[in-house]
Amino acid sequence: MLPFKLIYHPGYDLNIGAHVFPSQKFRLIAETLLKEGIAAPEDFLRPEPAGDEDILRVHTEEWVRKLKTGMLTASEVMLLEVPYSPELVEACWLAAGGTILAAQCALRDGFGCNIGGGFHHAHAAHGEGFCAIHDVAVAIRRLQADGAIAKAMVVDTDVHHGNGTAHIFRDDPAVFTLSIHQLNNYPALKPPSTVDLDLDDRVEDEEYLEILLPEVRRGLEEFRPEMVFYVGGADPYCEDQLGGLSLTKKGLLERDRGVFREARLRGIPVATTLAGGYARRVEDTVRIHVNTILAARGVTEARDAAHP
Ligand SMILES: [Zn+2]
Q1: Prior bond to 187 cis, omega within 30?
Q2: What is the 195 CA–ligand 1 centroid distance (Å)?
Q3: From the centroid of its chain, how far is CA 104?
Q4: What is the edge-to-edge ordering of all strands in the sheet holding 195-199?
Q5: How many whole angstroms from 159 Cα to the centroid of ligand 1?
Q6: What is the 3 state secondary structure string of 100-152?
Q7: Residues, CB within 5 angstroms of ligand 1 (ion)
Q8: 63 three-class SS
């Protein structure tokens, strides 16, 4: 049994069929965690869809109405880059509910892991790059509205810049946004995060970790967030079809462990989400996401062992 909860719902599947976004990965990750005995069925919680009042703390009424009624314009669908369907909308509301639940669990358990979410390209008034609803922003606003936290930090390690996150929180001193990404990649326009770590093409494990971890440490020390939202993209992987970095699976595991350890050392809870992953072999994407859960477990156990 895990010392924290995994949040998953079969409805996370975006039902987009053959597409570079492997939306069956959510189910495959959950199945792998069970099959390999990493998690037991009782470790899983099934989220409710987020309420519209939760979504509307981040998104405009017009965008929410368009999504719910299927009235997106052709150019809005093009920007979203996934075909519109009512199932897609359901999946978005569920993913946001899942990240809210993961954050609530993290407050109690130190970690809470959504086996979904991380839709960091979604903006308040439109969707982009497979992301229609910004689940992480929705969860931050919900926890703030509940008075559970005031300050949050987003650590986004997806290979693509977290443009939606940066834009949504651009004028908000209560949310620290950090994005480490390949500079020469989507999205073309990168509104500034609190800290942007722009990487050259083909950066490898060692250099990546040397750039990321000191900045995470500094952010935690200086900003002192009450929660970290981790956007754990699998797409900095060397075999990724949409990424141009050269991290190995081992390097990605060290990335997760490094970030989690820094938060844990300071007693800061971490809510994790998945984000992108487009490896040539979907098994690799699944493995990298599964390793994020193993990293969380490892950090929890190390801490408990050190402080019995
Ligand atoms: Zn990505």
Answers
A1: yes
A2: 18
A3: 15
A4: 44-45, 5-7, 111-114, 270-273, 227-231, 152-156, 175-182, 195-199
A5: 5
A6: HHHHHHHHHHCEEEECCCCCCCCCCCCCECCECCCHHHHHHHHHHHCCCCCCE
A7: 158, 160, 233, 235, 276
A8: helix
Helix (H) or strand (E) run with residue 176 in it: strand 175-182
Encoded tokens for 216? 């995470």
Distance CA 307, CA 25 (A): 36
CA distances 148 to 52, 104, 152, Å, are: 20, 9, 11
> What is the arithmetic mean of pLDDT over 242-260?
98
pLDDT digits 0-9 by tens, 56-92:
999 999 999 999 999 999 999 999 999 899 999 999 9
pLDDT above 60 (res 203): yes
Cα(185) to centroid of ligand 1, in Å?
A: 10
Tokens of 28: 């495959």
